[in-house]
Design goal:
alpha+beta
Length: 179
């Protein structure tokens, strides 16, 4: 019994050794946010440089910057009318998505006949804003930075995170919302 008490006492004495707390790494939440902001600014600058390089390599195309932050060039314009899709309009379009270098991700055959109700369904921001600039029958090419495409997460399938896109869209029809 004495041995047992001696062992228990010995474990208690050895187990009570004072441990010093580890010091936190000297990095504040603000530092991490600032670094993240700088990384994103640099990524955007690199993407704009790549997009500008593509625009320079296509002298026959006239790309215009949009207010939203992407570039677009009208490939075909039938001049049927000047009506642009508005909130609630139902539109039908064909779409092909590729990397900036032109390598196809989603060919038109797999994304043809897209139906979309303007601003009431999920669609990445660059394409949603681009469709608002189009008229019925127009075919337009868009160069979209990653922050306006699928951003940090990608599409969960073929488009990875932070991938700028090149999209060609043919707006086939606009059915106006009568409400």
């Amino acid at each position: 019994m004495i041995r047992l008490l001696f062992l228990v006492g010995l474990f208690i004495l050895l187990g009570c050794k004072h441990q010093e707390a580890r010091r936190p790494v000297a990095q504040t939440q603000t530092d991490r946010f600032e670094k993240s902001i700088e990384r994103n600014k640099q990524r955007y600058a690199d993407e704009v440089k790549a997009i500008q390089s593509i625009i320079d390599d296509l002298p026959n195309s006239t790309f215009k910057p949009s207010e939203s932050g992407f570039w677009y060039s009208v490939i075909y314009n039938p001049k049927k009318n000047n009506y642009h899709p508005q909130f609630g309009d139902n539109i039908n379009f064909d779409l092909s998505i590729s990397y900036l270098n032109g390598l196809l991700i989603y060919p038109e055959q797999s994304t043809a006949n897209q139906s979309y109700v303007m601003d009431q369904e999920a669609l990445f921001k660059g394409l949603r804003e681009g469709l608002k600039l189009m008229t019925e029958g127009q075919k337009v090419e868009f160069l979209i930075p990653s922050q306006l495409a699928y951003g940090y997460y990608g599409d969960g399938d073929l488009i990875g995170p932070n991938v700028p896109l090149r999209c060609t869209v043919l707006l086939k029809s606009i059915t106006q919302n009568k409400n």
